[in-house]
Amino acid sequence: RLLPESALKGWRIAVDCAHGAAVSTTPDVLRTLGADVACMGDQPDGRNINAGVGSQHPEGLSSLVKAHRARLGIAHDGDADRLVLVDETGSVVDGDELMAIVARHGLNKGRLRHGTLVATVQSNLGLKVALNEWGGHLVQSAVGDRYVLEAMLKGGYSIGGETSGHMIFLDVSPSGDGLLAALKVIEAMIASGQPLSEMRRCLSRLPQAVRALMVAAKPPLESLVGLQAVVAACETELDGKGRILLRYSGTESKIRLLVEGPDEETTEAVMADLEQAVRQELEVKD
Question: What pLDDT is attached to residue 251?
């Protein structure tokens, strides 16, 4: 049992079920634990799944949280394997903050196996900095829950996730489960006695710039000599205080650029240089 009986007595929680699989699970479980639950996205008709609701559209949940003065809001996607949270102020909690909260709690309770969290290369560098400060470690995998799981199994780790809110708790299940992830965060909230708006501050994000450019072809990045030279120069400019990630999309004709740096000005300047280099080396379709 993840939480004791009546653990959520006196809690008011808002839930967006995305007109999907969570309709008959998350609200019922939370009510069984004593919570007062306000729902939206709970009228599936077979066609309206994810339609303007759920984890991809958290603005409705933010309004519901504020209207009902809820302690937190929980949003799932259609198949309920992801979790997006809204704190008591109506602000959306991102996936890196979610992972930081559960990892820190796991470290405090000795449940983060080998003191290590698994995340993808998309996660903000601030997550690694935070884990190191707490005496833990971050292992990064390629983007995709299958790669997160592979890294977890290979290293014998217990918790992993993605910025999308897809979390895996291997001690319970080998697949993503939005309800399980929500209960893990609530467990951490109960243990800390802090509101979610305070707990999320455990992560200090580095400024980040992201671009996705349509390209006519996807030659190996290592073959683009001019681009590699610009990347090397930009990494020298960052001087270990940020990072650069270039990768092709696995499903679209796109190249994805990510830059993190010590401040907004530096980050945007590096991104501008990278984007210009990409446009010079590849045929970009605007």
Answer: 86
Residue 2 pLDDT class (50, 70, 90 cuts):
confident
How far is it, in rounded angstroms, from Cα 79 to Cα 15?
A: 15
Domain count, the chain: 3
CA distance 133 to 127: 10
Cite the beta strand spans of 129-242 per DSSP E: 137-141, 159-161, 167-169, 208-214
Range of the domain at 170: 95-202
Say which residues have a Cβ less than 8 Å from residue 99's Cβ, sequence separation at least 6: 117, 119, 123, 127, 159, 161, 167
pLDDT digits (tens, 9 = 90+) for 166-182: 999 999 999 999 999 99
φ, ψ at 162 (rounded to 5°) = -125, 165
61, 78, 93: which is the final residue of a domain? 93
> Cα separation of 53 and 161, whole Å?
22
20: DSSP letter: T
CA distance 148 to 146: 5
Does some domain include residue 37? yes
User: Above 80 in pLDDT, residue 1?
Assistant: no
Contact, 165 vs 120, CB < 8 A? no
The answer on 74 and 53 residing in a single domain is yes
pTM: 0.86
Domain co-membership, 113 together with 175: yes
